[in-house]
Amino acid sequence: MKILSINISLPRKIIFNNKELLTSIYKEPVNNHVKVNKMGIEGDGQADLNAHGGINKSIYAYSYAHYNYWGKLLNKDFINDFGLIGENLTIDDFSEKEYFIGDEFEISNLIVKITQPRIPCFKLGIKMGNKEFVKYFIDYSHVGMYMKVLNSGEIKKGDNLKLIYREDNSMTVYEISQLAFKDLNNVSAMKKALKMSYLSDEIKDRFKSRLVKLGHYEII
Predict the structure, then answer these.
(1) Helix (H, G, I), strand (E, B) or coil at 189
(2) Most CB contacts within 10 A, which of 164, 199, 204, 218?
């Protein structure tokens, strides 16, 4: 697997429906080395720290292989639109069905660990110019992967990702996204996910809340 583009942005103001919004979803490619620490890529920022960023979501990666799907669906050419959905790392082929929560990758002298799938917000629809896009994104279930940074380092476009560690009894990113958005009553799968120490608290809290509503108070 190879990094095709590294994309960053700082928060900026946009006007939508005559309202001013702050967003960092409009990522732009950078062609030089970038420094990375546990809070993310130097020069990148988040407008909403409740929904993005932080230790468990310091880097967001997405597969370039999905660009073709979106191009066909929306009848547009996204071939050179790196950072299309606001990802930090555009990776040539990074399948949510192939990689697991807790997987660790070496990129140059950096080590990162998958923590959760993306939970999209309405700003993604604004970025894509389509009010239905968040629904399409969730239906597709290939929502990309958030990763935490385990050590500081430097990366550049063209660097390879090498899988160096896989946790036992994990679930794929695709399985977790299905559980988050579609398979809403799968009690056994949600309980399994809660036992994964490397899954982010954001996703665990979703599952805990849902389990309680389903009457499973033993998880409290």
Answers:
(1) helix
(2) 199
Q: In the chain, how many H helices and how many E strands?
A: 6, 13
Straight-line distance from the first to the last Cα atom of the chain, in angstroms, rounded to the nearest whole number: 40
Arch. (CATH architecture) of 3-180: Beta Barrel (2.40)
Q: 96-129 b/e with 16+ CB inside 10 Å = b?
A: beebbbbbbbbbbebbbbbbbbbbbeebbbbbbe
Extract the tokens encoding 113.
Answer: 């660990």
| The predicted structure's pLDDT at residue 220 | 72
Q: Which long-range contacts (CB under 8 A, 24 or more apart) does 187-193 make?
A: 187/211, 187/214, 187/216, 191/216, 191/219
pTM of the model: 0.93
Buried (b) or exposed (e) across 131-163, using 16+ Cβ within 10 A? eebbebbbeebbbbbbbbbeeebebebebebee
Instruction: Indicate the residue type of 78.
Output: F
Length of the chain as a residue count? 220
The whole-angstrom separation of Cα 8 and Cα 89 is 9
